[in-house]
UniProtKB/TrEMBL annotation:
Keywords: Ribonucleoprotein, Ribosomal protein. HAMAP family: Ribosomal_eS24. GO terms for biological process: translation. This is Small ribosomal subunit protein eS24. The lineage of its organism: Archaea, Methanobacteriati, Methanobacteriota, Archaeoglobi, Archaeoglobales. GO terms for cellular component: ribonucleoprotein complex; ribosome. PROSITE patterns: RIBOSOMAL_S24E. It comes from Geoglobus ahangari. Gene3D superfamilies: 3.30.70.330. Belongs to the eukaryotic ribosomal protein eS24 family. Pfam families: Ribosomal_S24e (PF01282). Coiled coil: none annotated. GO terms for molecular function: structural constituent of ribosome.
Length: 101
């Protein structure tokens, strides 16, 4: 899986960094999971996963690529104040299931 950062900008009003990215997955032939992309993004952008959310990720028809939009907040509390519950559930439900309750 190859991950390319296409565009990023700071949004000081919402205390976050907005990142547009592209994922190429010709080697796996399967669209990578949101958790796999979050791990890779956190490594590339030096951000902890507890303050990183992927808003959307769309596979492109006929290609082994997907484009996406991620947000990196300054603190987890800033993220919880701005993001809607369903976005947080999509990004963090897998972690809570794996780690037990």
């Amino acid at each position: 899986m190859e991950l390319l950062i296409e565009k990023q900008r700071d949004n000081p009003l919402l205390k976050r960094k907005e990142v547009y990215f592209r994922v190429k997955y010709e080697d796996t032939k399967v669209t990578p999971s949101r958790q796999e992309v979050r791990e890779k993004l956190s490594g590339l952008l030096n951000a902890t996963q507890d303050r990183l959310v992927i808003r959307w990720m769309k596979p492109e028809f006929g290609k082994m690529e997907a484009e996406g939009y991620a947000l990196i907040y300054e603190t987890p509390e800033d993220m919880k104040a701005v993001e809607e519950d369903y976005i947080l559930k999509r990004n963090f439900s897998e972690e809570s299931e794996e780690g037990g309750e």
